[in-house]
Sequence to fold (595 residues):
Amino acid sequence: MSNLSYTDGKLRTILNDCKTIAVVGASANWKRPSFFAMKYLQGKGYRIIPVNPGQAGKKILGETCYANLKDIPEPVDMVDIFRNSNDAYGVTEDAIEIGAKVVWMQLAIINEAAAEMAQNAGLEVVMDRCPKIEYSRLFGELGWSGINTGVISSKRRKVGRK
Amino acid sequence: MSNNKTSDNNDFGFETLAIHAGAAPDAETGARSTPIYQTTSYVFDDVDQAASLFNLQSFGFIYSRLTNPTVAVLEQRIAALEGGRGAVACSSGHAAQQLTFFTLMEPGDEFIAATNLYGGSITQFGQSFKKFGWHCHFVDPVDPENFRRALTPKCKAIFIESLANPGGVIVDIEAVAVVAKEAGIPLIVDNTMATPYLCSPFDWGADIIVHSMTKFLGGHGNSMGGVVVESGNFDWAQNDKFPGMTQPSESYHGLVFYETFGDFGFTMKARAEGLRDLGPALSPFNAFQIITGTETLPLRMDRHIANARTVAEFLDNHAKVDWVSYAGLKTSPFYDLGKKYLPKGPGSVFTFGVKGGFDAGVKLVEACELFSHLANIGDTRSLIIHPASTTHRQLTEEQLRASGSGPEVIRLSIGLETVDDIIRDLDQALAAT
Ligand SMILES: Cc1ncc(COP(=O)(O)O)c(C=O)c1O
Fold:
């Protein structure tokens, strides 16, 4: 179990600022968690770019899938990693190379060496979290399923990003 | 999986969370108190959004058997007060227990429970659960090693009450948690009598907490409700005991709850399968009443305890009383455990033995004028019952003794009236025995 903690402020800034998210390890199978996350984030207005060598050239959720990050012909703000912790290192190297601003590793994915490398290169790093869950937690939907969001506020809360 | 408790949440005190957690002013109207969303269903934006909701790919409202905005505020509130990851509310405490085991167990599975539970729980576990193919082993919880001795390969959980109803018995939660952890199974704690204000089972290693919100959480004797809270710390994949969490769900097209939702997978499964198929949804109106109750929980519990202490001391010195079982009395064998697990005080429900046995018990409850003779606890009003002639009637003589409800036993739930009035009523009723 990790004890990583990220302030809500940091996560809010990342989720507000990023527009394009490359999802490495994107599945075309609608039952897989990566598909869930992509579909959700796409519904919230993010541009999703799937990355998976097995699906390269095909479409997932209407977006062209690439074999690796370096094949993506346009700028990427965030790289969301659905691979195991070891593989996350190589993906992080590519993320730095293509000029991504954020490396985000999914639940149970932790690679401290990759995190340090990315931070030294000026990237923001989040590990062992899901952007779908954090988005829904911070912007008002996760609580609808009884999940403890930790958000306390006396302000009117519109659902979604500002 | 990590414990995704947010840093922000830990910055607020219990009283603040009791008032604010889960609730924000209504986005459309600015209404400050939580509105009662008295609706069965919710319109979809389009077919694709509906599909996402049904597939659990997004969070939202479909039908109030599954989720409701008023109920959701209460769920978040209780999850926050317990320091848990998520919660599912339902129609009663018994429904919460049913939901918990429905989510954990397969036919043929077993679990271990304390002998001194609320009588209704003993009947539910020992009798009705058989129809689901579940077997409960009951053990005396006073020695935590009894749980270890009763373990079998098919055991999927250990169930205790933090503060037992009605015995005044406090279980060594931390010691039982060690047994559960070593066996790779969750410890479930019924925290009804203690409430999260007095006892924090997750801090002592519990994995799931259940409540009858009917009692102190609602606190006014006007609404039934139950809730299941998940700590988010249990690793469901550490062994192959929990295929429901780690294997594809047939009723969700092969979705794997633990993989997809991580540390709140149990909560999602309890809702998506348990509430969906068993059907014990909490009504939005009851949720509203219980939300209002939680806002004053700390204040009420402080007074409940102050009154209970005074009454217990009065009874302890009364000529017609044989014994008083209140862990707040220095003479109680549970005094030290009480100091550890319930440092603010061991609640306001306790038992005493009236001299004269069964018949004196019956006379006593019938002679009360201020105390209400009824089968509940955790009301603003002081309540009295003679378990042997009422709540515990279904139990055998042996079970009666084991649950601390022999023929001479009287159970009190001390309310918030003026304490001198409470004592005066008991004094005159004892005189009638
Ligand atoms: C400790 C405890 N657990 C569970 C229950 C069952 O709750 P409900 O009556 O809300 O179903 C009760 C009710 O008396 C109780 O006292």
